[in-house]
Every structure is written in structure tokens, then in C-alpha cells.
Amino acid sequence: MFESLSQKIEKAIQTLKGQGRITEINVAGTIKEIRKALIDADVNYKVAKEVTDEIKVKAMGENVLTAISPGQLLTKITNDELTRLMGGESEDIRIEGNPAVILIAGLQGSGKTTFSGKLANYLKRQGRQVLLAACDVYRPAAIDQLKVLGGQIGVDVYADLETKDPLKIARGALDHARKSNHRIVIIDTAGRLAVDEEMMNEIASLKEELKPSETLFVVDAMTGQDAVNTAKAFNDRINFDGVVLSKMDGDTRGGAALSIRRVTEKPIKFTSSGEKMEALDRFYPDRMAGRILGMGDVVGLVEKAQESFDQEEAARLQKKIRKNQFDLNDFLNQLAQIKKMGNMKDLLGMIPGMGKAMKDINVDDNAFKPLEAIIRSMTLEERENPEIINSSRKERIARGSGTTIQQVNQLLKQFSDLRKMMKTMNKMGGGKRALSALNPFGR
After folding, report:
1. What pLDDT is attached to residue 333?
2. What is the dihedral of CA 91, 188, 130, 204, to 10 degrees?
3. For the segment 310-320, what is each residue's pLDDT rounded down to a tens digit?
4. Is residue 282 left, alpha or beta, with left meaning phi > 0 and alpha meaning psi from -120 to 50?
5. 72 compared with 161, residue with greater pLDDT
6. Taking a C-beta distance cutoff of 8 angstroms, is the pair 92, 77 a contact?
7. At residue 380, does pLDDT exceed 80?
8. Contact at 8 Å (CB) between 258 and 86?
9. Is the Cβ–Cβ distance between 123 and 280 less than 8 Å?
């Protein structure tokens, strides 16, 4: 997401490079290109004009310091305005009541049910007792899907197959939550293919009866301005508390993320991408603005790593690295931890400067599978002592993993180089740096 927008804004700002100062003439062309880039990204025209007018006003009012180029200054001003456009500050969800009720709304196909599971997982990892309530009685697979998701993350799901009344099911879920000591109930509601009166009446009745501490509207980011229009229609009717942008890993221009806050005057609280239950991120406007302008999101990357890596495992691994005992079992465990962090191209895009470098490169999330298959085809002794793997063992491992001897050789060489690097760093007192390259808990 935002790749095309990032490239166009960067190109627009580059026109100021080499300029000694910002003038009305040289900034006018840059602002025009930024506005065009925003509109091309499906940002509402009125919003795009307001933002770029504000950038121009602030740019003309600034004195360029000798240590800062006009391009750097305009980047800073654009970053500030994009951050303000998307809300300025990150806003968390409210958890109030016994139990607290979180009502999920949106059109069919927007990703409500998947988000409900992700939110339950997000809250469970904070140590909260969560119950999922299946109140989508129209889509045949909705209840089964929620049960599958609940099973994956170890969260209870309340469903009542004897009624088609969402309000009755929701009441039953609240009663069950009180009896079973669940502190939060997430209500997954029904969607429609388009906004209609029946749907609005149903979700409005649920909100009136349940009095949720938080009502979240899930919108498919891939639908562009349609997403903004749908969000406005829902907000006018049920006055939701926040927006969730789903399918952020899809082929989308990003206009919804930039327009929806200004149009609805409600904060974006989460972004969701992919099907993994861990692929849910709290929305930070300043970090998103930084990513749009190619400045990355190092803080977000570190937070993802901290969520995914186990501290006890990190401490155990640190000891093995210091003793030069790092083996292929440890390597396999690290691959599993990295995969938990999410989409690889998205992760690389959080590193400053990498977004531009990765624009024409397809990063396959399945790239680790051959490595995993090779290691899993080894015996325990081979994993602990790779140096014993001779030609015949390599042939067996290649056959067992469905790979080639060349791929086995490549993995063994890479692993050997990694161990040599760790050994050298240990001798130089840099074992901690070696560990930190593998996980965020190295000390």
C-alpha cells in the first residue's frame, strides 16, 4: 500500500533539491504535483486541496535554515500535515463495563469476522478474558468461521443456532460472559452487499440495546472512495467510535486511509492485513505519514518484534550464542518467530529507505518454506552437528524435503557463515550484537 503515492510525492519534492530557498514560484509546482499524487491515490479532491493549501501556506511562512534544504523542509511540513490529516494522535479502544461490549459493524466482505478474531487475539495477549459472539445470522458460514478463528486463538465463541434474532443472541452472550467471568464481549454483526435501511435498523437496535463501550466500523481499504462514502453513511446513522481499515496488504492506492478521518471526523484505530491472527496493528498517524514519505517506521518494526519473540527463548538463545552452540534447531525457531511478525514486504517497508528499494521486488512470504523443509528433513544429530552432513546425507535430505542438493548446500553454507560471524563477534565481545541481529531482546 502507498507505494505509488510515496514515489510520486518523493518525485514532487525532489524538484526543490538544489534550490537555495523556497519561493512562491518553485513551491507552486511542487504543491501541484503533491495534490495530483493525492488525488491519483483516490484521496477525496476537497481533502487533497485543503491539505496541499495548508502545506503551501506553512512552506511560504518558513525560513530555510542553512543546515536544512528546501526539500527537507517541505518533507517535514508534508509529514506534519499528513499526520494531522490522519488524526494526529493514536487513539486506543475504550474498555468499560462488566462486561465491556465492542460492537463490530460494516458491509459484507469488509473483513468484520476476521477482524473480530484478530481483535480478540490482540486483547487476549494483553491478558484480558474475551468472548466472541456470533450475531451474523445471515451469512451461512459466518458462525462456523468465527468458531474456527476462536479455536485458533484459544478464545470462547458464543453462538445460538436456535434463533435468527441477533439481539437475542447478543443478550445471551452477555449473560454467558457474566457467568463465565469474561470481561470483554466482541459482537460480530451481519453485513450486506450495500447500505440498506434494514441493515441500519438492525445495527442501530443492537447499539441502543447493548450500549457498547466501543463501536468499530470495519471498511475494506481496497474500495477507495466508496469506503469513505460507506463510512460516512454508517457514522451518520450509528455514530461509531472508530474505523478499522482492513485488507491493507491488497492492491490499493491508500486514499481511504488519508480521507476517512477528515470526512467522518472519527479516528482510525486499527489496520488489518492478511489472514494471520497476529496481522493487526494499532494505527499511528505519524508512523503512517513517515512510511508514505519513505522514512519507514522503525518503532513499529521493533514493537512487532517484541510481540513476536519470546523473552525466555531469547535468553536461552543468548547463552547458546555465547558458548558457540547455536545450531539448526535454533535457526528453525528463529524463522518461525520472524514469520509471526507478518507480511515480509510490509516489514521491509518499515525500514527507512527500503520502501523505494523494494518497489519492483516481489517478496514471497513462502521463501522460508524450502529452508524449513530442509532442516525438518534432517535427523536431530544433523541439526545439532551440521558438519557431519556428507554427500549421501545431503541426497537423503534433498529427497525428503523436495529440494535439490544445491539448495541443501546453500543453506549449509549460509548457516556456516552465520556461525563463523557469531564466533568472531564473541571473540571481539560482540555476542550481544549477534543476538540482537536475530531478535529484539538481545542485551
Report:
1. 80
2. 60
3. 666 666 777 77
4. beta
5. 161
6. no
7. yes
8. yes
9. no
| CATH fold of 100-284 | Rossmann fold (3.40.50)
The answer to whether 159 and 188 are in contact (CB under 8 A) is no
Contact between 116 and 214 under an 8 Å Cβ cutoff? The reply is no
Domain ranges of the chain: 3-85, 100-284, 302-436
CATH architecture of 3-85: Up-down Bundle (1.20)
pLDDT at 47: 83
Please check whether residue 288 is in contact with residue 268, taking contact to mean a CB–CB distance below 8 angstroms: no
Beta bridge partners of 130: 184
Residue 170 near residue 206 (C-beta atoms within 8 A): yes
In whole angstroms, what is the distance from residue 160 CA to residue 37 CA? 49
Place of cell 508514505: 292
With contact defined as beta carbons under 8 Å apart, do 14 and 75 qualify? no
Range 302-436 classified under CATH 3.40.50.720: no
Residues 283/230, Cβ–Cβ less than 8 Å: no
Cell numbers of 329, please? 534447531
**CA 22 to CA 32: how far, in whole Å?**
15
Q: Is the pLDDT of residue 24 over 50?
A: yes
pLDDT in tens, 398-411: 999 999 999 999 99
pLDDT score for 75: 77
Yes or no: say if 112 and 143 are a contact pair by the CB < 8 Å rule. no
Measured CA distances, 248 to 92, 184, 185, 229, 292 (Å) = 19, 26, 25, 18, 13
